[in-house]
Amino acid sequence: MLHIFTRSPFQSRAFDESAAVISQNDSILLIQDAVIAATVENSPIFSFQDAGVKIYLLAEDLAARGLQDKLKLEVNVIDYKGFVGLTVDCETQMKWA
């Protein structure tokens, strides 16, 4: 399953609420303000990475916020083509706001 987050952990409790349903075989895509989660120490996103969940960030949203050099964890930075590829590869998707 692909879990798409759109809001930062400061704007929403979606990261905490999703913890009960995200499993090791799932993928997470951070877009819009959610990319901030990968730049903050002690972000809830770290627990997903520790559990082996694949984490992706949309490069354009990272660049729009000037955060390219501020990542605190290793993630896969993808472009819009990669975004489309993820949605094709993951039949089931969930958007968290």
What global shape is seen?
Answer: globular
Residue-averaged pLDDT: 95
Helical content class: 25-40%
Q: Give the name of the CATH architecture.
A: 3-Layer(aba) Sandwich
Q: Any idea what the radius of gyration is? A: 12 Å
At the fold tier of CATH, the topology name is Hypothetical Protein Ychn, Chain: A
Task: Order the strands across the largest sheet as they lie in space.
Answer: 4-3-2-1-5
Which runs of at least 5 residues are low in confidence (pLDDT < 50)? none
Give the strand content. 15-25%
Provide the CATH superfamily.
DsrEFH-like
Query: How many helices does DSSP assign?
Result: 4
Element-by-element helix/strand order: EHEHEHEHE
Oligomer: single chain
Structural class: alpha/beta
Question: What is the terminal separation in angstroms?
Answer: 16 Å
Number of domains: 1
